[in-house]
Amino acid sequence: MSEVKAHYDTLLGSVYSWIIGDFDSACARNSALLERLNISPALDGLAVDLGAGPGNQSVPLAERGFAVVAIDFCASLLDELRTHAGSLDIRPVHADIVDFRCHLDRDPELVVCMGDTLVHLPDRDTAQRVLVDAADALQAGGSIVISIRDYDTPGPTGADRFIPIRSSPEQIFTCFLEYEEDIVQVHDILQQKSGDEWRLSISGYQKLRLGMDWVETVLGSQGLRTIDRLDDDGMRVLHARK
């Protein structure tokens, strides 16, 4: 995942939270999703947040009573998470999510991998490995929640490949997408004002074109039963139980 990590370290990490917008609002949306999925501690309460970022999932999980292991490869976002966490039971871990099991001292009852984290992985085999490891690590009766955007269906063409994400008087963030057979090439374009001039930064990485049917099939092969599938704020969400 070195290409994606470098992209976050050099460009996206510094503006990620600004792109998401108000942190409390983002947490409220995820809290509502957890409520909709009926997610709450039922076993020993250990949850693993794969791709935790600044804590948009970890904080709502901890507020619902989970002890959260929050794993992310971007150190600056984990610093933000520590600030947001306060006294909540959240343990930030700076690591690749592929190695998440190395950072657990017991099996979790919940694994969440949300906000497109799964499609950031370098290839389909690695994504499958993470799903299989997550399923294997779960306690009996535990759950997995996955969310991804719909990159499986045909993407935009022509000028529609330029996606305006967010802007302010000081900076503008635009995304340019190129759809290939198995991946989407993502080019993030950041324009920042310095005095009377604008500075341009461009960095790219790839996302996997994973469909939720494929995710469901992988988890099903590991003995997990789908509890719910739904759309939430542009994301496709799957909840499965062991």
Question: What would you say this structure looks like, in words?
Answer:
The protein has 242 residues and is α/β, with parallel strands linked by helices. It folds into two domains: 2-150 and 210-241, Vaccinia Virus protein VP39 (Rossmann fold, 3-Layer(aba) Sandwich); 158-207, N-terminal domain of TfIIb. The chain has six helices and eleven strands. The protein has helices at residues 2-20, 23-36, 58-63, 75-85, 124-137, 212-221, and strands at 46-50, 67-72, 90-94, 110-113, 143-148, 162-167, 171-179, 183-194, 197-208, 225-232, 235-241. The chain is globular. It starts with a helix and ends with a strand. 36% of the residues are buried. The model has no long low-confidence stretch (mean pLDDT 94).
Give keywords:
seven-stranded mixed beta sheet; alpha/beta; N-terminal domain of TfIIb; Rossmann fold; 6 helices; four-stranded antiparallel beta sheet; 2 domains; 242 residues; single chain; 31% helix
Element layout with pairings:
Elements lengths: L1 H19 L2 H14 L9 E5 L7 H6 L3 E6 L2 H11 L4 E5 L15 E4 L10 H14 L5 E6 L13 E6 L3 E9 L3 E12 L2 E12 L3 H10 L3 E8 L2 E7 L1
Parallel strand pairs: 1-2, 1-4, 2-3, 4-5
Antiparallel strand pairs: 5-11, 6-7, 7-8, 8-9, 10-11
